[in-house]
Amino acid sequence: MKIFVKIKLIFLLTILSFNVQASRHKKDFIEIHSHKLNIPVSIGFTGNTINIYGTTNIDGNIVVIIKGKNIKYRVNKQIKKKIFWVNKQITEIKNIPSIYMISTNKYVSYDRLNNFNFGLNSISPIIDNDKLSKDEKKEIWNKVKELKQTKGNYHFKINHNNLKDINSLFKATFNLPPNIKIGEYDIYAFVIKKNGDISDITQQKIFINRKGIIDFIYNKARYYPNLYGLIVVLLSLLIGLVSGYRKN
Amino acid sequence: MNIYLPIAEMSMNIFNLIGLGGIVGFLSGLLGVSGGFLLTPSLILMGIPSSIAVASQSANVIATSTTGSMTHIKKNNVDYKMAFIVLFGGIIGSSVGVWVFTILNESSQLDLTVKILYMIFLTVIGLLMFWELGIAKIRKFKKIVVLKKLHKHNFMHRLPLRTKFKKSRLYISSLFPMIIGMVVGFLSALMGIGGGFIMVPAMIYLLGMHTSVVVGTTLFQGIFVSINATFWQASINHTVDFLLAFILIIGGVVGARIGSSVSSKLPADRLRIILASIVIFVSIALFVDLIMPPKEIYSIVSPKGAW
Description:
- The complex is a heterodimer.
- In chain A, a hairpin with a 2-residue loop joins strand 10 (163-166) and strand 11.
- The relative contact order of chain A is 0.19.
- In chain A, 32% of the residues lie in helices and 38% in strands.
- Chain A has helices spanning 2-23, 110-115, 134-150, 212-223, 225-247, and strands at 30-34, 38-41, 48-56, 60-67, 70-81, 84-97, 100-104, 126-127, 154-157, 163-166, 169-176, 183-193, 202-210.
- Chain A has two domains: 2-210, Sandwich (Immunoglobulin-like); 211-248.
- Chain A contains five helices and 13 strands.
- The mean pLDDT of chain A is 83.
- By secondary structure, chain B is mainly α.
- Chain B has one domain (13-291).
- Chain B has helices spanning 14-31, 36-45, 50-74, 80-106, 110-142, 175-191, 196-207, 211-237, 242-262, 268-291, and strands at 2-5, 10-13, 162-165, 170-173, 298-301.
- The longest helix of chain B has 33 residues, at 110-142.
- The mean pLDDT of chain B is 85.
- Chains A and B meet through strand 5, strand 6, helix 3, helix 4 and helix 5 of A and strand 1, helix 3, helix 5, helix 8 and helix 9 of B.
């Protein structure tokens, strides 16, 4: 298995090297390839590591970003009522990405990224609750960011060694958490040039899909709930009958 | 070794789950008690969301009730007429229970409700077990023999719809068993239990049924009540994780076999004390969980599950 991965990596790097050769005539360029385009969530899934390989001839700060689709969440707050801590649903927060991970090879401030419409500060969450003040909304968004970072969904690796660049080739490594949502993810890469401008943004998509029994159970439970309920009931009955038969 | 649970959308150690199912199965095989009341709170304390733990446990109850009732059907220990009347109430109760479950889940209050219900019931069960053990010890020590009356006549005998239950040797109103079925069905759906620990004493002490048919009748009607609860949980709430239920069933079956094979070799009284202690311990753990300040005041939930 490891041999296949190595062959795949050599193949990717070869393609990238050819791209470097072919692009020498181009003025500025940046290209990326993910070593996995489809990441299966199967029965033993505990998260996954994804390597993004890239090439560029631009001198500057390389930025690689993985972004999930925007979704909405319910925000709950625990409040103490008498002796018990009770959940209170305070609002819904919309328009925030399920995953947001950044890797750069040199330090770049969040404000700088924000100028290019990237980074967590560039996200504009929608909190439809008139009872909440502006400060409260800001506090909620900050808490959500904190929670997402704790769960490994939002990640900044500013000036981190997870993005390595050697000459014109670079590699960014991201750890996808086990609670990752199924679907399409966008990978963006660009270079912040020394003069402060940014290069063209190159983009690639990766897909997180359920596989095997996980896919079967999830799809049946979500899209055919009556059939799924029936199957669960029949299988449970069958196990009970077989077990009871053997017992008797 | 971890396993990804497709509905809970989280990874769990498979040996922990099999072990939990096995321990509860072992206790049920050893002492003849259904371990549902221990399994669901243990799953919650392990970090599985209440909604998934409760609904998946309902599927587990189908299997355990079927296995258990087969022995009683063979021994002719089931009062079918009583079972169907209790079941009628149970179907209504469990359907209402699933509806309440949905409301509580949507308003993020399910976790609290389930924990409080378990805390109350486990405390009561644990204390009753200790009480029963204590009384038995005193009677044994003082050599007191208690002669039981068949049953006392009470308000049930004045209620309408009186029916003869030949197997149970009763002539009582059908309304009361139906109400008991309704209450237990409601709690089954909300707590993911078979309800034996409520139904059995209710049938013995309130209805005056003969103990020989009580367990069989309870298990028999429990199959259909849990089928109803599981089906609606899967259909309305999408919270039944069959993979989780399957692992628990497998662990439970193996544990129950080992438990029943060693039951004659171990001192039953001491084991009952251990079980009562476990029940009280889980209840205290739930209480502590409810009163301790949470590590994080805020939490976020995706309406479609997962993060």
